[in-house]
Every structure is written in structure tokens, then in C-alpha cells.
Amino acid sequence: YQVDVKAYDSGEPQLSTIISVPLFIRHIATVPPDIGLGFSDDSYTIEIPENTPDGALVKMFTVVNSRVKSHTVPLRCSITSGNESGMFSIDITEDRNCELRLHGKIDHEKQYEYHLKLQLDTLAGLGNPARISTMVKIQVQDLNDNVPQFVYPETSKRFNKEKYYGAVARDRKEVGGTVLQVKAADKDSGNLGNVEYRLIPDESGAADYFAVDPSTGSIRTRRGLDTIPEEQLPLRLTVEARDNPAAPND
């Protein structure tokens, strides 16, 4: 095409000039959107456990449409956003689909969800604009991989290099009085991080004089302490903190 452009000034008499501008139309091969290359869905949600090994297949994404999936057509899969940590990798397979793999060690406690944007790169005009990219939400499933840890107050003393709780029973005859409260924390989420407490009996019999609230860790007297011989003092208790109490075999 050739377009003539005329420019005028505002003078008296009015002057003008004309320039001819050639226009060239570049041909781009296109296909109808319904048969263009694209992902089968515009979004995906995937769940993977946090102990998934490095290099494991996360998901295979089907690329449609088969009529333009000839090996003569260049095709590449890429992650365009959400993979700043380099935790995932994606490649094209022999059958021209996209293979997403784990490329590192995931941890629910560090990051429980990833949002990736995947893109198909091919010849201009061969892609389906509505499906040339897709969003992927990856949810990391928590596992019971953390052990409860007792939290000691700053005033705690050490015995054999280990910290311990200490308390004084001011009324040795009192029954049901609170002696002290222990506390443990677990990094796992939900029920996996719930902590339950119990006293561990030993040969001294000290645990017979106390009861621990399994939910709060509060330790109370269940018998008067005035009957305990002086030579058996101080009493030592062993408290177990256990996580995920809903699954005793876990």
C-alpha cells in the first residue's frame, strides 16, 4: 500500500507539502484459536508432600492441539514467574508435553504454597491465546517431621548440662494445688503440631504424687507431700511431650 500524507501550515497564503508513505503487510501464519497450541486447562492445583524427593515428577501438563504438534514446529515450556527460588524445573517431553519436576527440598514450615506461571513458546500465530499460558498452585502437604521441644523460662537452671524446670511446694499437705506448668512447642501445623503431656513413672514413685493436664502441661499434686521422707527429696519428675495425639501410631 501507499499512503499520501499532506501537511498544512497556518500562514497566509497557506502552504502545504505531501509525502508518500509505503506500507508493507507482513504475513504471519495463524491457526484458529480452537486448534492452536495450548495447555489443556487455564489453571491447576497440585498437592505434594514435603518429603517429595529432589527430581521427582510434580505433574505432566498435556499440550493441545495434536494437529499442530508436529516435531517440525518448535515448542518450549518455561516458568515465567513464581520460581524465584529455583525450586522447580520444566522441560518438553518426547511426546511434546510439559514435564514439571521438583528441583530442591521443599519444607511446609518454610513455604507451604507456590504459585507458578507456565508459558508455551512456539511460532507466532500457532498458539491458542487463551491457553498459551497457565497458572499452577502447588500446595505443600505438612508431615509430622518435627519433634516437640520444651520451652524453658529464662530462670531455668541446668543439671548435667541440661535445662530443667524447678518448683517449690509451699504447702506439702495441699492436694490439687498447681506446682508448675511445663510447655513444649512443635513446628508442624494443625493436628500434627498439637502437643499432649504425660508423666513417665519411674522407680522412685514420685509420679504417683502428681498429675499433669495433658492439654496445658499444668502439674498438680494428687496426694499430700507431707508423707514423703526427707531423704527422698527433692522429687524428680519426667514429663513426656508428644505431638499429633490424634494418631498414637504416628
Quick one: CATH superfamily of the largest domain? Cadherins
Stated plainly, the CATH topology of the largest domain is called Immunoglobulin-like
Strand order of the largest sheet: 4-11-10-7
Model regions low in confidence, pLDDT < 50 over at least 5 residues: none
What is the count of β-strands?
20
Quickly give the structural class.
mainly beta
Biggest sheet overview: 4 strands, mixed
Which overall shape is indicated by the principal axes computed on the Cα atoms?
elongated
Key phrases:
mainly beta; three-stranded antiparallel β-sheet; 20 strands; 250 residues; Immunoglobulin-like
Tell me briefly what this model is.
Residues 40-150, 161-244 form the Cadherin domain. The protein has 250 residues and is mainly β.
How is this structure best described in words?
The chain is mostly beta strands and 250 residues long. The chain has 2 domains: 109 residues, Cadherins (Immunoglobulin-like); 95 residues, Cadherins (Immunoglobulin-like), CATH 2.60.40.60. The protein contains no helices and 20 strands. Its main location: membrane. This is Cadherin domain-containing protein. Keywords: Calcium, Cell adhesion, Glycoprotein, Membrane, Repeat, Transmembrane, Transmembrane helix. It is found in: Membrane.
Task: Summarize the SSE layout with pairings.
Elements lengths: L1 E7 L7 E7 L15 E2 L3 E7 L7 E5 L1 E2 L10 E7 L6 E5 L5 E5 L10 E10 L10 E9 L7 E2 L6 E3 L2 E3 L13 E4 L2 E2 L9 E6 L9 E3 L5 E4 L16 E6 L7
Parallel strand pairs: 4-11
Antiparallel strand pairs: 1-2, 3-6, 5-9, 7-10, 8-9, 10-11, 12-16, 13-14, 15-19, 17-20, 18-19
